[in-house]
Amino acid sequence: MYLLENVEISNMSYEQNYLEVALMYELKSKEELLRAVRGNDIVLIEYYEPGNRDCQVMYESMKEFSRYADRSIFFCRVNVREHPEIADVNDVPAIRVYYKGELIFEQMGVLSTVELNLKVIRRSIREVFNKRNIHVKI
């Protein structure tokens, strides 16, 4: 169960709900970001700018990643153009991974293809998790 208040879900199956709302939930305020990070053990946040080709590669990578990753990982996105007050990154695309409220992984930029990007991100996060004795499917 993901802890994020006031998320309205209608006319979706559980699986659609999980993939469309929970895995790629769009954070729109500092309060939502804080609730997501503090209320879930593992949170991955993708920072993006609409229309940016590199951001599209990252988005496709994160969609693929979410298919295979442990269901306890909460995948979120922040549109840096619409919500600059919570987009405290220097470049897009960027991803951050939080574990129990602590930032443990960060990547700025993207590699040339979805497949290569996904492979490198998964391997990098897995290494960080292994060093911290975090046992979830990546």
pLDDT < 50 runs, ≥5 residues: 1-22
- Measured distance between first and last alpha carbons: 18 Å
Taken in chain order, the helices and strands follow as HEHEHEEEH
CATH topology: Glutaredoxin
Compute the number of helices. 4
What's the CATH superfamily, by name? Glutaredoxin
Category from helices, strands and their pairing: alpha/beta
Tally the structural domains: 1
How many strands? 5
Q: Which percent bin holds the helix content?
A: 25-40%
CATH class: Alpha Beta
How large a portion of the residues is in β-strands, by DSSP E? 15-25%
CATH A-level architecture: 3-Layer(aba) Sandwich
Task: Report on the biggest sheet.
Answer: 5 strands, mixed
Widest β-sheet, arrangement of strands: 1-3-2-4-5
Task: Please state the average pLDDT score.
Answer: 86
Radius of gyration: 14 Å
Overall body shape: globular
Layout of secondary structure:
Layout: H1 14-22, E1 25-26, H2 30-39, E2 42-48, H3 53-68, E3 73-79, E4 94-99, E5 102-108, H4 114-131
Parallel strand pairs: 1-3, 2-3
Antiparallel strand pairs: 2-4, 4-5
Helix pairs in contact: 3-4
